[in-house]
């Protein structure tokens, strides 16, 4: 389902369908199947290393949610360490949320990471999404790219000038971040003005290539997989 020959529209549809299927899981019995599905998509896409690298931040967030829910939610105490109590209901809810989050992010990265921002926005337009949504997605991606570039240049200039490092420079880093955000915002506004002057959003649109047989097969397989996960979750 993640063959490089798949069109951007097919990749986007597959990612959305599988994400909704995993998000609909309410019990712990089917979580292993969701993990296997996400791992299979990542391996088949050839993006396994990229997915693992980008999952680190999400894994920290998922671990925090799991720990917080385990200590706060529920009444059945499994273990107690001083004032802290590990609660069964919170542990189950935390595992469910953490695994679903990691699985959804992993398969989304595996399917959409090979796409450029313009291909992703083109896929949205090809799916007849509102033009405003596609424009916002394009400008958001462009703004994030501008922010990243400004921050890299600012940090490089700071290091070349002998800037200090460590927690004591937190105020200086905050100033660099604020300056980068302002400069990136100004540059994004200039880019948007240039796009409008060159006739962007004038009503003309590039023709959309039709979906191929492989696209339809993979989208159908994703739909069956999502429905199968939901069905098994309701049974068990």
Notable traits:
single chain; 2 domains; 236 residues; flat; 8 helices; 73% helix; mainly alpha
Q: What is the straight-line distance between the termini?
A: 27 Å
- Assign the structural class, choosing from mainly alpha, mainly beta, alpha/beta, alpha+beta, or little secondary structure: mainly alpha
Unreliable spans? none
Q: Please give the largest β-sheet.
A: 2 strands, antiparallel
Average of per-residue pLDDT values: 82
What's the number of extended β-strand segments?
A: 2
Query: Rough shape?
Result: flat
- Please estimate the helix content: over 70%
Strand content: under 5%
Number of DSSP helices? 8
Please tell me the total number of domains: 2
Order of helices and strands: HHHEEHHHHH
Instruction: Output the strand order for the largest sheet.
Output: 1-2
Q: How would you portray this structure in words?
A:
This protein has 236 residues and is mainly alpha-helical. The chain folds into two domains: 8-115 and 209-235, no CATH class; 122-197, no CATH class. It has eight helices and two strands. The chain has helices spanning 8-23, 31-45, 48-72, 88-112, 117-126, 131-160, 170-197, 213-235, and strands at 77-81, 84-87. It has a two-stranded antiparallel sheet with strand order 1-2. A hairpin with a 2-residue loop joins strand 1 (77-81) and strand 2 (84-87). The longest helix is centred in the middle third of the chain and has 30 residues, at 131-160. The model has no long low-confidence stretch (mean pLDDT 82).
